[in-house]
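hiii so um. not sure if this is the right channel but i have a protein structure encoded as tokens and i wanna go backwards to a sequence. like what aa goes where. can anyone help
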């Protein structure tokens, strides 16, 4: 096991009714806040009025910015940073899913940064240049990305057809409120996409060619089994509190550093390929991952890493065979069938994507060199995966 430092400063307020504490929690850090949210869903379910009341009760001045897109735009980040500077705001409160929280992180970084975070952090990956940021907090309404408990952000630039990530420890939320009740109104499509996104975060850390990371693997298998068990329940019965609660907490634990700390290697190739997909076609991230993941699995499988597939098959799905590669093929098919059971498509053609931009996407995914660790993927490898997924 590798040396590591594990420090998660985010305070979690979990459970029904915890939103009532938002005013008191914000007051610890700020008297003037940017309230950031997406479209109108938080107004329809009453969350907007509840948050505004609690902030007003604590005499907290509120400046609002709404309309955050599912793939948050760098233009929105710049607009938010301008508001924060103009009104001398102390904190950003993101109310929504991972896109809103990711956007908040971009705003928090850009507000205090003298350069352009898109060029310096997202494109050039000079994360060390970010030394300060506004504090952020979140109220989560969609379990998927884990952004409520980590310092990662993914932003889109439609003018350049790019979707890129950056991250910093200082961008971890100071607190996040997780009330499963506010995920009851999430529709089937977004519920399925969230389940796939959580599983993909675990796959990216679980699948590696080394044979170490025993403890981390067992934790991830438990999280995978939880999501596989409760995902279909939430999909069919959206107001099942226990299902929504388990999925919500699994989402946070899957990407807050718990499962990767001390691990020899992780992969993340599928995410890098999907970022190209959703940058070019603006599809839902989890749906793109659901399409690509089984094809990635089939492509990278070899004698050096088959043991990971065997563990996944044995410990998560209870699939056993004498031949390791037969086990691997069966568990890959089982994964695809599970995604299909949530009405996640199996091919790119099903979401109206053709072959016209495959080479462009393969080039974008590998612009900084080979990706992944299960198998080093170069341009031709990514192109073959994308072609198979058609």
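sure thing!! here u go:
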């Amino acid at each position: 096991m590798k040396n590591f430092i594990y420090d998660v400063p985010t305070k979690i307020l979990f459970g029904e009714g915890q939103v009532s504490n938002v005013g008191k929690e914000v007051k610890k850090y700020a008297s003037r806040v940017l309230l950031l949210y997406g479209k109108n869903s938080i107004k329809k379910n009453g969350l907007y009025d509840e948050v505004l009341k609690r902030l007003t009760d604590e005499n907290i001045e509120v400046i609002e910015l709404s309309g955050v897109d599912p793939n948050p735009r760098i233009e929105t980040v710049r607009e938010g940073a301008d508001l924060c500077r103009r009104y001398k705001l102390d904190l950003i409160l993101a109310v929504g899913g991972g896109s809103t929280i990711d956007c908040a992180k971009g705003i928090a970084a850009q507000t205090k940064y003298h350069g352009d975070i898109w060029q310096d952090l997202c494109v050039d990956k000079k994360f060390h240049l970010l030394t300060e940021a506004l504090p952020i907090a979140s109220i989560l309404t969609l379990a998927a990305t884990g952004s409520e408990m980590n310092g990662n952000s993914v932003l889109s630039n439609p003018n350049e057809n790019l979707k890129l990530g950056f991250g910093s420890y200082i961008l971890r939320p100071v607190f996040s409120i997780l009330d499963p009740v506010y995920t009851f109104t999430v529709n089937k499509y977004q519920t399925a996409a969230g389940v796939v996104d959580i599983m993909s975060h675990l796959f990216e850390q679980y699948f590696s060619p080394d044979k170490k990371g025993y403890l981390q693997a067992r934790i991830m298998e438990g999280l995978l089994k939880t999501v596989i068990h409760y995902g279909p329940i939430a999909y069919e019965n959206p107001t099942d509190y226990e299902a929504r609660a388990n999925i919500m907490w699994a989402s946070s634990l899957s990407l807050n550093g718990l499962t990767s700390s001390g691990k020899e290697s992780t992969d993340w190739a599928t995410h890098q390929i999907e970022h190209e997909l959703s940058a070019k076609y603006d599809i839902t991230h989890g749906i793109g991952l659901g399409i690509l993941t089984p094809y990635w699995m089939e492509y990278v499988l070899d004698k050096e890493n088959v043991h990971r597939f065997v563990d996944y098959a044995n410990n998560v799905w209870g699939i056993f065979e004498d031949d390791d590669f037969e086990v691997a093929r069966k568990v890959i098919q089982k994964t695809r069938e599970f995604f299909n059971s949530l009405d996640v498509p199996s091919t790119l053609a099903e979401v109206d994507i053709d072959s016209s931009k495959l080479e462009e996407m393969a080039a974008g995914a590998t612009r900084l060199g080979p990706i992944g660790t299960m198998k080093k993927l170069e341009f031709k490898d990514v192109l073959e995966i994308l072609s198979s997924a058609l």
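oh and Residues 214-236 form the longest helix (23 residues).
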